[in-house]
Amino acid sequence: MAGVTFKNICKVFGKDVKAVDDLNLSIKDQEFMVLVGPSGCGKTTALRMVAGLEEATSGDIMIGDVRVNDVPPKDRDIAMVFQNYALYPHMNVYDNIAFGLRLRELKGFFWQLSHMADAKKIKADIDTRVKEVARMLDIEKYLQRRPKELSGGQRQRVALARAIVRKPKVFLMDEPLSNLDAKLRVQTRAELIRLHRTLGITTIYVTHDQVEAMTMGQRIAIMKDGVLQQCDVPETVYNQPANKFVAGFIGSPPMNFIDAKIVKEDGVVMVDTGEFKLPLGAGHAAGAYEGKPVVLGIRPEAVFDKGMETHVKGTEANTISAKVDVLEPLGPEYVAYLACGKHNMIATIDTGTKIKEGQTAEFIVDLERIHVFDSETEAAIR
Ligand code: ATP
């Protein structure tokens, strides 16, 4: 097993499509790393360069200590799982899983034909491994079926089995769950995490879905326009986003952004939105922005109905008044569309609320969880 390192990796298509721009990222041995970002951000290109399906324009790709830029894909000891499972339709599940193993043994197998005992041993070994992996993925009872006789979820498990059975150094997965329905996606997500825990194989997983990234990744690398924005554990990416893009991309419903400026009142640094002001903690770096425009970020889940019990104490400093335009039931909570004067905001509110649509009410903002961004660079100020 081995880690994977991107060192100053650039990939330019044609003359000027910079798909990946100076990517520096180290994926540790046995780590589950998720590359996430909107369509076209370069995540698939980054993955394909590790696989050797795409050549880096510049920089180094390392698998373990070996620079693999010039190593052919088949010699990189990686296994890839795609969105479309690409199973062989004319082979049954057993042969689909065994195919790669047989291919690898083929050279040795012919050489050993004169030693039938060895050939039999190879066949038995392959059989053991196919059955072991089929058991792991709960597809034992389908081994004799053709892919067309399986559901989407079962096919995806066969594709996974085919990748796992080879015991590669590195797994590369490109949106492997996107063809599955919502329920199966959640289930397979959990299975993949469990498999990773069991096998401990370094995995790079590409997705555009931030929920998938947050739930699966031990660390998450967020990309935009070919540029890595932040790479960290899910909690840090959520609680301390490096910039406005990451803040808006991670979390659902997304963070509210409000144009504001920094003012000082009695020595306290405040974010002033024109409709309400919120104080920032002592020593907040936004103090250096006095009089300058910034963007205030408030997560919907950091806003509470003042009329209900919450863990955040309501004070004059953290209370805002807003009209509730719409209350959208989401099962365990409401998504409330609020109008605070000229600013629109979303808040997730407990369904026990007494607030009705059209009413003006008071809300508490958790001051520990507000964010401030530089209006120009969009970098977080904290
Ligand atoms: P998606 O989620 O839509 O697959 P992605 O983040 O994986 O997007 P990439 O497929 O890596 O993005 O593409 C990154 C950029 O490179 C895009 O602008 C894309 O149009 C461009 N690109 C990708 N492959 C090629 C190619 N073979 N030739 C030219 N441009 C390409």
How would you portray this structure in words?
It is a single chain. With 382 residues, this protein is α+β, with helices and mostly antiparallel strands. The chain is built from eight helices and 21 strands. It has helices spanning 43-51, 93-111, 116-136, 152-164, 182-199, 210-216, 234-239, 244-249; strands at 4-13, 17-27, 32-36, 58-63, 66-67, 78-81, 170-174, 202-207, 219-224, 227-232, 256-265, 268-272, 277-279, 293-298, 303-305, 319-329, 333-340, 343-350, 360-365, 370-374, 380-381. Strands 6-7-8-3-9-10 form a six-stranded mixed β-sheet, with helices on both faces. Strands 13-12-11-14-20-21 form a six-stranded antiparallel β-sheet. The two termini are 39 Å apart. The mean pLDDT is 93. The structure holds adenosine-5'-triphosphate. Adenosine-5'-triphosphate is lined by residues 13-14, 17, 19, 37, 39-45, 208. The site of adenosine-5'-triphosphate has 13 residues, from strand 2 and helix 1.
The run of helices and strands is EEEHEEEHHHEHEHEEHHEEEEEEEEEEE
Strand order within the widest sheet?
6-7-8-3-9-10
User: Which kinds of small molecule does this entry bind, naming each only once?
Assistant: adenosine-5'-triphosphate
Q: What's the total helix number?
A: 8
Count of β-strands: 21
Model regions low in confidence, pLDDT < 50 over at least 5 residues:
none
Give the % helix. 25-40%
Rough shape?
Answer: elongated
Structural class label = alpha+beta
- Proportion of β residues? 25-35%
**Kindly state the mean pLDDT as a whole number?**
93
Rg from alpha-carbon coordinates:
26 Å
Instruction: Characterize the biggest β-sheet.
Output: 6 strands, mixed
How far from one another are the termini? Answer: 39 Å
